[in-house]
Amino acid sequence: MRSVFLNKQHLEDLLKQMTIDEKIGQLSQLATPFFKGSTESGKITGPLEQLNISDDLVKNTGSVLGASGAKEIRNIQEQHLKDHRLSIPLLFMSDIIHGYETIFPVPLGIGSSWDIELAEKSAEIAAKESAVSGIHVTFAPMVDLVRDPRWGRVMESTGEDSYLNSEFAKAQVRGFQGEDLTKDLNRLATCVKHFAAYGAAEAGRDYNTVNMSERQLRETYLPAFQAALDAGSKLVMTSFNTVDGIPATGNKKLMRDILRDEWGFDGVTITDWGALKELLPHGVAEDEREAAYKAIQAGVDIEMMTTCYPDHLKNLIENKEVDEELLNEAVRRILQLKNELGLFENPYRGLNEEHEEKVILNEEHRKVAKELAAKSCVLLQNNNNTLPINRSQKVAIIGPFAENNDILGPWSWKGNKDIAVTLAKGFEKRINNRDQFVVAKGSKVESITKEQLQKAVSAAEQSDVIVLALGEHSEMSGEAGSRSNIKLPDAQLQLVDEIYQLGKPTVAVLFNGRPLDLHGVFDKTDAVLEAWFPGTEGGAAITEILYGDVNPSGKLSMSFPYSVGQVPVYYNHYNTGRPQGAPDAQVRYVSQFLDIPNEPLFPFGYGLSYTTYSYQNMRLSAPSITPDDTLKVTITVKNTGKIAGDETVQLYVRDMVGEVVRPLKELKGFKKIHLQPQEEKDVTFELTEKQLRYYHSDLNFDSDKGKFEVYVGPNSKEVHTLSFTLIK
């Protein structure tokens, strides 16, 4: 009979009862088809079949990957509790990245909302829908800092800035986990990923090498992980890449010295899919036995979807090559997580078949999804006030995404495309008179026919304004979705060019998972609205923006390059000894491209509105500060237009002379304000010496005395500037 374990001693007693095989089983995670009670049970083919998983390992396994639905998870858990000698419950883990069945915008879109509270709310909703379906752990948030839009997984990140990513990381952990994970059955444990520096893969090619100094790693790529752990994230997932020449999954310095010893993380670590065995092709393990040895020494607790631990760890311990206490530590952490989730008391935590239909995709959840989709949209261009569309105008909706329901994006695992609100459906909901708009496909995502083009031109000729619905299909970004050419496919550029010839007001709406090279689009359309993959309510949200029911307020959390030749391109770069544009700079012998600008097409923090704002009267509370002071930075922001709007006021700082080279700007704060027409507000930020610290060459985290510049503005480029001095 299963007992209830509630305290540390009970867990220790359980650990003592376990055989070595049962302990190793807790370190294994297998996919759903391996388990009795699953609807996929027995459907083991291809790579899964090659794993040669034994029935004994399945019985002892500690966690399940990818199961969903209250009925299925209950069935699997019931069968497992009967089969496991000690009736230790399973953990059910899944990729709940930007929604369960109610799908929100991809995280890069959520980052562009700059709305921390709404991001937290979206995670709370995703947790509620997942928990009622029986899931315990989500592989989120993904906090990798991203600077290269060629990498498909930029869509999973909230952007290129470590401070902004940290704020979203904390919000998502709060949203998923809540304040009391044990008692709140509507929440999930979070697994922050990918530790670490996965977003810096060379050439933006997925799974590729990462090479950087430890100082850069700590300053730029680790802060968001530390923020997630400070917020209470229960698990950490290793990354696929190398860190200082050693794959993260076998990297003792990263996983044990920094994560556990320095940061004090005592939660569970887990590999990404198959990553432990990948130590072999990386060339740091001769065989699976050595891979198991290196991973357990590095502090990796759970091996996902390979069998290096069950096949070799017992022998390593019996031969005294691995101390059994390392195994005990890993099992202890896993049991503690199960205990925190209350699984020993209630192995069916949260799942409720009766409530699933009431909770999942309910109207409240869809309302939040629409609100976040609207706030994630970024207005990149609006020449001649083409937007919002006048209600009397006839509209042609043209392009591969006019009626395409592939708008949920990668990692919308349980999302149902059939119920997604397409752009055409959004117009149908918004406009009573069907004669006010016409729809034409124009092209597919990557191909075009003469007939499609003729129908598109005909529809455009009948209309007053044209909305071009363009973008990537979901397989063009996400994991393994790296692209060397980040322009829209040629078929769509041909469509844009044909419509451009008509000389009519034209709006481009973009559905995509990465910043794009927009040549051939922004120069041939009057307005450009970046909608990302907007989720379940995407079409409804976009239509409200196009007609002015909602004033766009999104700001880019990742720069849009002028050309792919610039990447990686990001706002907080270093100066050079020969900077372009310096007062005494030469014309040729400076750091520049001969054929394109140095600057991105659209910078970090950029986004337009249907109204206009003025920034004026910037002032500081003092000309200098000490480590004991707080400097107040105030600016007056006025809505100078005719409609109300939300503006994200951004604060940046530059250390003018550092012990090592410092970025030209660093985001240190932001505030979202709502202003009525002609209303003005004073926006005040507080700066302290702690916010001026960085990692020096000796890895000491400290600040420099001397001159600093502080910038405030609507984006990272258009700013007002003042100076102050730090006295130490």
Summarize the structure.
Helix 7 packs antiparallel against helix 17 and helix 11 packs parallel to helix 13 (288-298). The chain has 21 helices and 26 strands.
Could you please describe the fold and organization of this structure?
The protein is an alpha/beta fold. 29% of the residues lie in helices and 18% in strands. The protein has 21 helices and 26 strands. The strands form six sheets. Strands 9-6-5-4-3-2-1-10 form an eight-stranded parallel beta sheet. A six-stranded mixed beta sheet has the order 11-16-15-14-12-13, sandwiched between helices. Strands 18-26-25-20-21 form a five-stranded mixed beta sheet, with no helix packed on it. The protein is globular and about 75 Å long.
Name some characteristics of this structure.
single chain; 29% helix; 21 helices; 6-stranded mixed β-sheet; alpha/beta; disordered N terminus; 8-stranded parallel β-sheet; 728 residues
Write the layout of secondary structure elements.
Elements: H1 8-17, H2 20-26, E1 28-31, H3 46-50, H4 55-60, E2 63-65, H5 70-83, E3 91-94, H6 107-113, H7 116-132, E4 137-138, H8 162-177, E5 189-195, H9 214-221, H10 223-230, E6 235-238, E7 242-243, E8 246-247, H11 252-262, E9 268-270, H12 279-282, H13 288-298, E10 303-304, H14 308-318, H15 324-340, H16 353-359, H17 363-376, E11 378-382, E12 395-398, H18 423-430, E13 437-440, H19 450-461, E14 465-471, H20 490-500, E15 506-511, E16 527-530, H21 538-546, E17 613-620, E18 624-625, E19 630-639, E20 645-655, E21 666-675, E22 680-688, E23 694-695, E24 701-702, E25 706-713, E26 720-726
Parallel strand pairs: 1-2, 1-10, 2-3, 3-4, 4-5, 5-6, 6-9, 12-13, 12-14, 14-15, 15-16, 18-26
Antiparallel strand pairs: 7-8, 11-16, 17-19, 19-22, 20-21, 20-25, 23-24, 25-26
Helix pairs in contact: 1-15, 2-14, 6-17, 7-8, 7-17, 8-10, 11-13, 13-14, 17-21, 18-21
